[in-house]
């Protein structure tokens, strides 16, 4: 009790010392990590410019010390403040977005960053929508959670914010998802004007670069060898030609017969399928059948009972019944 009474007299000084030691510990930790890993001191701008040379994901780079982490550059400014990222699954799109975001966070807390150089903006908020998750407790689907998180970003972001959206719209039907994704991009470009990283498998959205402006296409590159692909993990300018979904499925060792069938279906879909054309042709034949043409000429209200019976017999003969 006497010790407690004595400490009470200097509790304010003890708290001040503890706070100072905590800050020294944090700064010293950042300094040690930066020194040991060869991080560089970032510079800052007020022009909404992200200019990172040979950037890496600090955590993954640390884990992969025995392997070479493929570094990537990025440049964004007000004339291209939405980065549209396409490419295959496992190609590095999500990691690329995460490393950019992590670099900005590390810089703003006072740490050196994992890159050759970095000139970064000051962001007031960061909003992310990465990965799929259901809220089973409240009964919300993946898509509902996705929309709620997207709305939080759109409502809370300012022109000084950073938005990171990974494959928005994938939780619903293709056309619905594509429509929502495009509308979100248009809203960001026209209303918010903030820096945005947007990955997607909807390749149609890459056309917005030429029609909407303020959008720059980049893609996670791969090397093709027949039906095999090699992930290069290098982000290059321009859009991806395709998603390589079947190729990735092959890497997961799905049955060969399944993969072969998937390739056949994919080729049919890309070539406006023979099956669909056959259905369309059949529908046209039905539309122009003799029975329907005959029916078009009949006014049921003008037929007498005898005429109606005669017409029904005629239609039955036409139908071959």
Protein structure class = alpha/beta
> Please, what is the CATH homologous superfamily of the largest domain?
P-loop containing nucleotide triphosphate hydrolases
**How is the biggest beta sheet arranged?**
6 strands, mixed
How large, in whole angstroms, is the Cα Rg?
Answer: 30 Å
**Quick one: overall form?**
elongated
What is the overall number of helices?
12
* Number of DSSP E strands: 10
CATH domain topology of the largest domain? Rossmann fold
Helix content: 40-55%
Supply the CATH class of the largest domain: Alpha Beta
Low-confidence stretches: 273-286
Summarize the structure.
The chain is an alpha/beta fold and 321 residues long. It has helices spanning 2-9, 11-37, 58-63, 93-108, 142-156, 174-192, 208-211, 245-251, 256-270, 274-287, 290-296, 305-318; strands at residues 43-45, 50-55, 72-76, 82-86, 117-121, 126-129, 162-166, 195-199, 215-225, 228-237.
Describe what this molecule looks like in 3D.
With 321 residues, the chain is of the alpha/beta class. The chain folds into three domains: 1-37; 38-253, P-loop containing nucleotide triphosphate hydrolases (Rossmann fold); 274-318, no CATH class. It has twelve helices and ten strands. It has helices at residues 2-9, 11-37, 58-63, 93-108, 142-156, 174-192, 208-211, 245-251, 256-270, 274-287, 290-296, 305-318, and strands at 43-45, 50-55, 72-76, 82-86, 117-121, 126-129, 162-166, 195-199, 215-225, 228-237. The longest helix is centred in the first third of the chain and has 27 residues, at 11-37. It is elongated, with a radius of gyration of 30 Å.
């Amino acid at each position: 009790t006497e010790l407690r009474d004595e400490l009470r007299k200097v509790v304010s000084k003890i708290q001040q010392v503890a706070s100072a030691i905590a800050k020294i510990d944090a700064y010293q930790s950042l300094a040690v990590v930066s020194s040991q890993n060869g991080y560089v001191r970032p510079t800052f701008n007020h022009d909404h410019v992200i200019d990172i040379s040979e950037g890496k994901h600090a955590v993954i780079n640390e884990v992969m010390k025995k392997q070479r982490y493929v570094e990537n550059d990025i440049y964004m400014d007000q004339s291209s403040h939405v980065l549209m990222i396409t490419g295959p699954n496992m190609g590095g799109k999500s990691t690329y977005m995460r490393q950019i975001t992590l670099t900005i966070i590390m810089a703003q807390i006072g740490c050196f960053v994992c890159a050759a150089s970095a000139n970064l903006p000051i962001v007031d908020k960061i909003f992310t929508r990465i990965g799929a998750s259901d809220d089973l407790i409240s009964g919300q689907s993946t898509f509902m959670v996705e929309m709620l998180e997207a709305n939080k970003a759109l409502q809370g972001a300012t022109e000084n914010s950073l938005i990171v959206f990974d494959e928005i719209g994938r939780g619903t039907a293709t056309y619905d998802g594509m429509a929502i994704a495009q509308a979100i991009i248009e809203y960001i470009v026209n209303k918010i004007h903030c820096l945005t990283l947007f990955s997607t498998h909807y390749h149609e959205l890459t056309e917005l670069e030429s029609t909407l402006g303020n959008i720059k296409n980049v893609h996670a590159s791969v090397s093709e060898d027949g039906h095999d692909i090699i992930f290069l993990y290098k982000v290059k300018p321009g859009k991806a030609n395709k998603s390589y979904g079947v190729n990735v499925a092959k890497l997961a060792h799905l049955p060969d017969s399944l993969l072969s069938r998937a390739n056949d279906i994919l080729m049919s879909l890309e070539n406006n399928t023979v099956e669909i054309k056959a259905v369309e042709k059949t529908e046209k034949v039905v539309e122009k059948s003799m029975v329907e043409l005959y029916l078009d000429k009949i006014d049921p209200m003008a037929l007498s009972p005898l005429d109606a019976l005669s017409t029904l017999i005629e239609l039955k003969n036409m139908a071959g019944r």
